Amino acid sequence: MRRHDPGVRAPSADAARGPSIGDGQVLNLLAEWLPNQRWFAGGAAEAAAATVLQRATLLRTEAVSAELALIRIATATRDVTYQVMLGWRTVVAERLEHAVIGVSDALVCYDALQDEDITGVLMQTIADGSSIGPITAPGGAIDAPPDGWHGLAMTSEQSNTSIVFGNALIAKFFRRIEPGINPDAEMSAALSGRPYSAAYRGELRIVLDGAPTTLALVTHFIPNSADAWSTATVSVRDLLAEGDLHADEVGGDFAGEAFRLGGTIAQMHGDLAAVFGRFPSRDEEIDALLAGIERDAAALQTRLPEMTQLLPAVHRTCTQLGDDLAGARPTDQRIHGDLHLGQVLRTVDGWVVIDFEGEPAVPLAQRREPASPFKDIAGMLRSLDYAARYPLYMSTVDAQRAYRSDEWLARNRAAFLDGYAEVHGADPRDEPGLLTAFELAKAVYEVDYELRHRPGWVRIPLDAVRTLTAAQ
Question: Topology of domain 118-220, per CATH?
Answer without folding.
Answer: Phosphorylase Kinase; domain 1 (3.30.200)
